C-alpha cells in the first residue's frame, strides 16, 4: 500500500486548475510532481500553485508524454479537452499509470473500444470521474432503490440543463473547446452527469446493460440569438451557423426492459438542473421539485400539496447514504457540494490499495459512447442505433 501518491495533472484549464487548487493540493497523501497543458501560461500558473504549498516545484511541460515517461508517477488526473481524454488515458494505461479521466463524450465507437482493449491488455485501471454519482440526492436514492423502497424500477430520466451560452460564446477568448464542438457537432455531447447515477441504479454493466438508443435534436437558434446581443449583429460568431441543436432528447432501452430519457439543454435561457428522476412500481423521486412520492403514503386525496412536494429532507434521517452520513459528520470539502472530494477520495484510495476503481473502463465506454451514437441517430433522422456490449457478455455476471 502506498503512503504517498505521486500525481501528474494533465489539462489545466478552468476545470483542471480548479481540481488542482480545490481538491488535489488539499489531500495529505497526494503529491503533485508534474503539471501539463498545451498552454505555457497554464503550466506556469499550476506549477506556482503547487510550489506555494511548500513542496518541490513540479515538472511543467506542454507534452503529456513527458509526464508518462517520468517513471515515478502513480496516477494522472486528466482534465484536458474532450477530444484528448481517451488518447491520454490510453497512454497512461500503457505506461502502467492509474488514470482519473474527467467526463465528456466520445467521438467514435472505435475510441471506446480502444480504451477497453488497452485496459484488458494492460490491467491498469482507468476511472471516469463522474462526480454526480457521488451527489447526496443521487446516493440517497440509490440507497432507497437497493432497499426496494421504489419497487421495481421502470424508468429513469436525467439531463444536463445548464445555460452555457456565455462559456460557448467566449470560447475563443478563454481557449475553451466547447465552442468548436457546438459549431461542428450535433449530438448529446455531455451525457455522463445524467447517465452515471442512473447506470448505478439500473445496474448497468453489473447484471443489466443499455441495448439501443434514439436521439432527436431541435433546431439550433439559441447561440446566434445570444451572440447578437453579447457580441453584436456583425460579429463573426453571430454570423456562424451552429450545428448543435438547442435541445437534444435521447431515449435508451435496457436489456431488462427499463427506459431512460436524457436531455441536453445548454443554449437557451434556463435554471440549472440535472433533472434526476426515478420511477418505480412503489414510488418516485424527482429532482426538479425535490420530492419523493410513495404509493400508499402520499395519497393526493388525503395530503396537501405542501406535504407531497419538496419533501426530500423528511427522508434524510432514514435513507441518507451511509457514506454521506459519515461525510456530514466529518465536514463537507471541495467543490460541487462536496461531490468532487468524494470521487477523488475514492480514486486515490484505489491507487493507494492497488485495486480496481469504483467506476471503471466499462462504465467509461458505455457512458461516453452515447455521444457518438446520438450523433449517428440524429443524422439518420432519429433512427434507432445499437449500443455495443463493451463487456462482451460479462455484464450478466459482473
Automatic annotation (TrEMBL):
Signal sequence segment:
none
User: What region holds the Glycosyl hydrolase 109 C-terminal domain?
Assistant: 139-307
Q: Which cofactor does it need?
A: NAD(+)
Provenance organism = Paenibacillus dendrobii
Query: Is Repeat included in the keywords of this UniProt record?
Result: no
Q: Which GO terms label this protein's molecular function in UniProt?
A: hydrolase activity, acting on glycosyl bonds; nucleotide binding
The record's comment on protein family reads: Belongs to the Gfo/Idh/MocA family. Glycosyl hydrolase 109 subfamily.
Query: Which stretches make up the Gfo/Idh/MocA-like oxidoreductase N-terminal domain?
Result: 5-128
InterPro entries from the entry? Gfo/Idh/MocA-like_OxRdtase_N (IPR000683), Gfo/Idh/MocA_oxidrdct_glycsds (IPR050463), Glyco_hydro_109_C (IPR049303), NAD(P)-bd_dom_sf (IPR036291)
Name of the protein described by the UniProt record: Gfo/Idh/MocA family oxidoreductase
Which residues span the membrane?
A: none
Alphabetized, the UniProt keywords read: Glycosidase, Hydrolase, NAD
Amino acid at each position: 500500500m502506498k503512503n504517498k501518491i505521486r500525481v501528474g495533472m494533465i489539462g489545466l484549464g478552468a476545470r483542471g486548475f480548479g481540481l488542482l487548487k480545490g481538491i488535489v493540493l488539499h489531500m495529505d497523501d497526494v503529491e503533485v510532481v508534474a503539471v501539463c497543458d498545451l498552454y505555457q501560461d497554464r503550466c506556469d500558473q499550476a506549477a506556482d500553485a503547487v510550489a506555494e504549498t511548500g513542496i518541490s516545484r513540479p515538472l511543467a511541460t506542454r507534452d503529456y508524454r513527458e509526464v508518462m515517461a517520468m517513471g515515478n508517477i502513480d496516477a494522472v488526473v486528466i482534465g484536458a479537452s474532450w477530444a484528448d481524454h481517451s488518447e491520454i488515458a490510453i497512454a497512461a494505461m500503457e505506461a502502467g499509470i492509474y488514470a482519473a479521466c474527467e467526463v465528456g463524450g466520445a467521438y467514435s465507437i472505435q475510441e471506446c473500444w480502444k480504451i477497453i482493449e488497452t485496459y484488458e491488455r494492460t490491467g491498469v485501471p482507468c476511472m471516469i470521474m463522474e462526480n454526480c454519482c457521488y451527489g447526496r440526492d443521487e446516493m440517497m436514492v440509490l440507497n432507497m432503490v437497493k432497499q426496494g423502497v421504489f419497487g421495481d424500477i421502470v424508468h429513469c430520466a436525467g439531463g444536463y440543463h445548464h445555460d452555457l451560452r456565455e462559456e460557448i460564446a467566449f470560447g475563443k477568448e478563454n481557449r475553451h473547446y466547447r465552442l468548436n464542438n457546438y459549431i461542428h457537432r450535433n449530438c448529446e455531447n455531455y451525457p455522463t452527469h445524467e447517465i452515471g447515477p442512473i447506470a448505478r441504479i439500473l445496474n448497468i454493466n453489473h447484471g443489466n446493460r443499455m441495448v439501443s438508443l434514439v436521439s432527436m435534436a431541435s433546431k439550433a437558434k439559441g447561440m446566434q440569438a445570444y451572440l447578437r446581443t453579447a457580441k453584436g449583429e456583425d460579429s463573426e460568431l453571430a454570423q456562424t451557423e451552429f450545428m448543435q441543436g438547442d435541445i437534444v432528447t435521447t431515449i435508451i432501452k435496457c436489456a431488462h426492459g427499463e427506459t431512460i430519457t436524457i436531455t441536453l439543454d445548454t443554449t437557451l435561457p434556463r435554471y440549472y438542473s440535472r433533472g434526476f428522476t426515478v420511477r418505480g412500481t412503489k414510488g418516485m423521486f424527482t429532482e426538479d421539485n425535490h420530492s419523493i412520492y410513495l404509493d400508499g403514503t402520499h395519497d393526493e386525496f388525503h395530503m396537501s400539496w405542501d406535504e407531497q412536494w419538496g419533501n426530500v429532507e423528511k427522508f434524510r434521517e432514514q435513507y441518507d447514504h451511509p457514506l454521506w452520513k459519515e461525510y456530514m459528520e466529518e465536514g463537507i470539502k471541495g467543490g460541487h457540494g462536496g461531490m468532487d472530494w468524494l470521487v477523488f477520495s475514492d480514486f486515490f484510495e484505489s491507487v493507494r490499495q492497488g485495486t480496481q476503481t469504483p467506476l471503471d473502463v466499462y462504465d467509461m465506454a458505455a457512458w461516453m459512447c452515447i455521444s457518438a451514437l446520438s450523433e449517428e441517430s440524429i443524422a439518420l433522422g432519429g433512427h434507432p442505433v445499437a449500443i455495443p456490449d463493451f463487456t462482451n457478455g460479462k455484464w450478466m455476471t459482473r
